[in-house]
Known about the structure:
- This protein is of the alpha/beta class.
- The chain has two domains: 1-66, 2,3-Dihydroxybiphenyl 1,2-Dioxygenase, domain 1, CATH 3.10.180.10; 76-141, 2,3-Dihydroxybiphenyl 1,2-Dioxygenase, domain 1.
- It is built from three helices and eight strands.
- A hairpin with a 2-residue loop joins strand 3 and strand 4.
- The model has no long low-confidence stretch (mean pLDDT 94).
Amino acid sequence: MARGSINHLALTVTDLARSAAFYDQVLGFMGYTRAAVPEATKTAMKTALLAWASPHGAVTMRPAKGDSAKRAHDRNAPGLNHLAFNAGSRAEVGDLHALLNKIGAPVLDAPAEYAYFPGYYAVYFSDPDGIKIEFVHWPQG
């Protein structure tokens, strides 16, 4: 792996089954597949744990615990603002947008070219816990 590249992303969610259904669709579209998590890992971490993997990294998910499960995600508070995944083309951005509409996911900003950088084309949406996600095609160079 290249130095500085992201190895995995670990998410905590309020409803594991609801979020798993959402991420099965979204991450599946992006080329991730559900990966088996060894029982020994779940035991050592003292939690249920799901995972998706691709040649570009992995996403893991665990349920929130205790009073934390009652708090809503606030992307304007210290911590995570949003996640951005790369798309291979503008067409893929449009295809994911169609999937989001099909599964009823909240689309925050429809596919469009944004002025951040030349050719920056993205769709923004949120997961069941309100985590903002971006799928972006950005031809660099």
